[in-house]
Amino acid sequence: MKILACYSIKGGVGKTATSVNLAYAAAQSGLRTLLIDLDSQGASSFYFRVRSGKKNWGKRFFNTYEELLKQIKASDYDNLDIIPAHQSFRHFDALLSDHKKRHRRLRQVLKGLKQEYDLIILDCPPTLSYLSEAVFQAAQMIVVPVIPTTLSERTFEQLQDFFRDKELRLDNIYPFFSMVQRSKHLHKNTIERMQVRYKNMLETQVPFSSDIEKMGEHRSPVACYAARTAGGSSYNHLWQEISQVMDS
Amino acid sequence: MVKHSRWLIQDADQSEQILERMQTHFLPDLICHEQDTLTFYDDFEWRLWRKDFLLASNIRGQIILTEGNDSQTFDNEVSPSFARSFRNQNLSDRLWQVSDIRRLLPMAEVETSVREYALRNFEDEKKVCKLVITRSGYADMWELTSMRGYDKDYREALSCILEAEPENPERHLYRLSLELLDIKPGKYKSKPKTKVPPEMASADACSKMVRKMWKNVRINEDGIIQDLDTEFLHQYRVALRRMRALFAQMKNYIGPEQSLWFKDALGDLARETNRLRDLDVYLEDRDYYFGLVPEKLQPGLEELFQHFTRERNREQKRVAAYLQNTPYLNKVSAIEETLKSCPSEPGEKGHLPIAEVAAQRIRKRYKQIAKDAALIHDQTPDDDVHEIRLDCKKLRYLLEFFGPVLDKERVRPVMQALKKLQDNLGRFNDYSVQRESLEHYLENHKTSEEIQKAVHALSGVLFMKQQKEREQVCGQLEDFLADDVRQLIKQLTQPTSMAQSSKGSPA
Q1: Which of A178, B80, B184, B243 is 20 to 30 Å from B433 at the Cα level?
Q2: Domain containing B150 — which CATH number?
Q3: pLDDT at residue B503 is higher than 50
Q4: Number of A:B CB contacts under 8 A?
Q5: Does the domain at residues A2-247 carry the CATH identifier 3.40.50.12160?
């Protein structure tokens, strides 16, 4: 079982769209996939039309994997299940601060799911916190969408500093360009510069696209209604690249 | 975890009514609606059907395998031909258990329409249940499948359907649909049983049996000509062999002259197919032979098998032509004419009741085995062992032919005991026949040095194997001649057992 995290310190960079569309592409490729929506705003749950139960179960999230099993819901698609976000997930940091081995807690609890799933995708909230540390410990690959602007580049550097500071493995971080507008000089220049600078930079670039924006209306992965458009197909390419990295 | 229920609804209107009722609980979203033609396959002996399997292909390159009430669909499959030619290993293995080397032949077509619905909830239009309705000429089959985390919705959909009190099918829709089309297995059996009353005159009873066996000879011809699978030839030869065995063993009852004539005439037919059968067996056992020689000699064996394959194809064409030509057809009509008049001159004891004769023959044959076995020890020449093997074979035929006339239940344990011995003797014989035949091949064909090396190696291994079997012969014979089996034979052939089955006929 592989664990993949979609993460960014900065919000609004296409993180949830990435989680949702990668999860769909992975499931379509035949992997038994579980998407866990760790972001209490519940955007990826919303895209998959899945709601969490009313019970406040977030406090039991890190106890045992059986707690997680109870919360799993099927998506509309084969091979793809979801653990939807719950409001109580807001308190994850407080919860983790009470745990002794909090960095390893998430990895430990996810281990129990390896019989049932080939891939777990974690959609993470845009914060640097105990939770994100636990995510970085658990995931073999951390995929970071970066809008090619100066500001995004800065936050990406902040993430790397954080990794260095906490002695985490920098080579687990795989950035890729998201919401790319090639017509903009700034985008073009930033891409060229960053491509030289970061050896882990993925080749696929996800364009800024109205098809992807419409996911909220359709409440489904973009490939389900606009598979052949530039936006629709880009996540499939991204998944293929990621799966090659994971298998190597 | 995933729940699944299935019902049959024979009234199409009722189906639509339930669907309508469903709309007050869910949004039924029709995901696909397709017409489909299912082509069902089985082997010549209908072994899939008999073991409660059904195999179908549809127009989308899928294979559907039903076992009892369950069905499984396999995507991207080849059109059915043999169990081993499917891509999916699981599918291939399951079919291999049932139909092994027999060709799967199309036997019926059923038209269906399939509607697949996603049942969605109102609040998010989230798919919460899967519903598939398959319509055939017989009924609608409703299949409801739950989705993880949506058990409550599944229960709601379930109660919606149950209100209409649909039938829980005891058998699969496909089987019911085929039965509606009056599709049912043929009566063919590789070893047909002929019902004869115990008191029937033995000459008449035997004639009745051979006439039935002859049907198996004729029915397999077409499959040999078309080269559908190798079992057609095998079973053709089994039928001839059984007929010859019956004439040979019962000649004094059927009438010696006619029996001899049949033995020769049937032998002529069998002989024409000897080589083809030998080659079929080699090719079927290919993996086995390759496992017997070291890797470095395998290229020689490969070359030999290429020869066999080419020869087999030539031989098959020859046999196919022979079966359709006048000389063969003339022989066949002569046999059929003579069968009609059989027994034309029954032997002196031909009037004796078959049960009595059978019991006596079985006792005698068992005694003969016991007598010959007494002379066998570990150093006895192979020829004497072969003698015993032939005795056992004769006993086996007697039990097969006449066991049911005596006592079906009592014959079974005797057959089981005999089978163990026969397996041992059979292997002993097979190894020596294989060796001889391979050496014969070398003598009569110009072959490369590689082939010769491979054959010599193979021959060595087969010799060792034959020795191993030989070592077990004495022990196996002892088991078969032990008191328990002797008692079984006695019980099977004692007059009371016969009297029971002949229900009051004079003993």
Answers
A1: B243
A2: 2.40.320
A3: no
A4: 29
A5: no
